[in-house]
Amino acid sequence: MVKLRNFRILKILLLILFVATSSSFLIKESYAEESEVLRLINKERAANSLQPLKIDKELTLVAKIRCEEIKTHFSHTRPDGSRGLNISTKVKGENIAAGHKTPKEVVSAWMKSPSHRKNILHPHFTTIGISHKKTGTGHKYYWVKLFGTAKVKKIKLEKVKNLKTKSKKNQITLMWKKQRPSIATGYEIFVYNPKAKNYKLFKKITNYNTNNLIIVGLESSTTYQYRIRSYKVINKIVYHGSSSTIITRTK
Questions:
Q1: Cβ contact 170:188 at 8 Å
Q2: pTM
């Protein structure tokens, strides 16, 4: 009788160990696949000159909730009728998928879909939460990505300094102090149109190392007005510095 009882206890302990080990394996497997999804989408972003997305704990938590929801209600609308994006104020974009077995398959499918691709390559998205569920029913494989934005400090560029000119009969040379690459990507030169009474872009210089521009084909003995400002491209977003203005005259 004692041996039978001990045998039953041993069976229960082995069952508990099996369930715990299986659960641990599934969690590790899910984490590995979610990490691979992050690696693949950041590879796509890098190929498009975009900064990598970083995992956000809150987005990850609500992504897991959404993953449970889409197993029974595959839609961007939640089972309660609200939008999937409304699950958290942090969520700014949502990608869902079902039936794709591997991270490579699901990321490839998302990149072929214009709306999903737009989210993956959105320049303003900086954070992400990812969830993956494997089940024995329905589409079997379910995926959710929730995108968010982090607070970004405003970029303030320096004003271009030491703007000077040299004049010839039909030519003007603009000169300025070049800025460091950490400050500027390049420069924009504007010329004043007296008839329209406004400035229009005359030349965009894409090299921060440039510190002069020779303008030819001008009318002699004529006054010209130019503006120059630096610009910086960060994560496909363009920031501008304040303009420096100069009035000059050809000989």
A1: no
A2: 0.57
Kindly report the number of other CB atoms within 10 A of residue 173's CB atom: 15
Residue-wise pLDDT tens digits, 4-23: 455 455 555 544 444 444 44
CA atoms of 122 and 218, how far apart (whole Å)? 43
CA distance 218 to 224: 9
Residue-wise pLDDT tens digits, 17-66: 444 444 443 344 457 889 999 999 999 998 887 889 999 999 999 999 99
Residues 6+ apart with CB under 8 A from 244: 159, 160, 161, 163, 176, 227, 228, 229
Q: Find residue 238's DSSP bridge partners.
A: 233
84 contacts: CB under 8 Å, gap ≥ 6: 66, 75, 76, 77, 78, 91, 94, 96
Looking up tokens 């005359």, which residue turns up?
A: 202
